[in-house]
Every structure is written in structure tokens, then in C-alpha cells.
Amino acid sequence: MSARKVMLLGEVGVGKSSLARRLVSGKFDTAYIPTIGVDVYSYAVPAEVTGQPLSLIVWDTDGNLGDAIFTHVYSRQSSAAIIVGDVTRRATLESMARLAGGFRTAFPGRVVLFIANKTDLLHAAEEPELPSALSQPGAELVMTSALTGANVVDAFHRVAQTIVRRGQ
Question: CA 117, CA 137: separation in Å to the nearest integer?
Fold first, then answer.
């Protein structure tokens, strides 16, 4: 089984760790424990999703690292970045485009997926106001809730499929 490194990037408190834990264990923990440095998770993508066995090694990064993450050893050999924002905090959504730009500069041609997390905090018919950079052609955005699990596995499966399709 081949393995691919996926970086989870985003500001502090957007739910990166909650997404990773929901993916690998199917659970949500209400206790907030900030990531210091990096936590690493492994997720075996079902072969029927990508057409071949694939393991995602998910690097859940400290949101305090900011743009410095792209020069850090954590980022080496990344196949993809999942950039996370909190739908209730516009500033975190705006920083997603900046982080994507930094990742694309450091790792040209690699997969980037945006996640707008915490959709469970929106009112029934409420749509978050997303920055224009997240809705441009080629920008793939998935709305998720780590709390409910909505679209979490799908987001990681999309990244895996794109990695395999691009041969990265």
C-alpha cells in the first residue's frame, strides 16, 4: 500500500484536529486540546475510492505556525494540503487563500482542498459569506462539520482521488 502525506493547515481553533480525529476514529471530542507542533494520523483509503490501496498520512499542524510552515520540515514531501477555516469566523476563511498561495508556491502542482468547517453552527438556511478566492475556478471547497461528521470522509476521499488521478 502506498502512502501520501497530506497537510492540514489553518488558523488556531478551526477544527483541524477534530476533523482528523473524526476521520480516523469516527468520534468527536468536546475537549479542546490545541496541537503543539504537529500530530500525525494515518487513514487507509478504501481501494474502491481510488482504485488502488492508499494510505493518507495526515499531518495536523499547529495553527500558530502560519506561513512559516512552508519552510518547516513538517511540509517536506507533501502531496496535498487541506486548508481549513471556521464558517463562523470570517478571518479564518480569508486566511485560507493566503495559506493556499504559500502552499502552492512551496509545492507547485500539488493538490489543495478547502474545508469550511463547523457548519453545524450555522442556522438552518444560513449560507456563510465566503471570500471570493474560495469560489474561483479550480478552488474546490467542501463544507463540513467535525461534530456531526458531515462530509468529513468525503473531503479526504476527494483529496485521495485527486492525488491518484494526478499521479502524485
Answer: 21
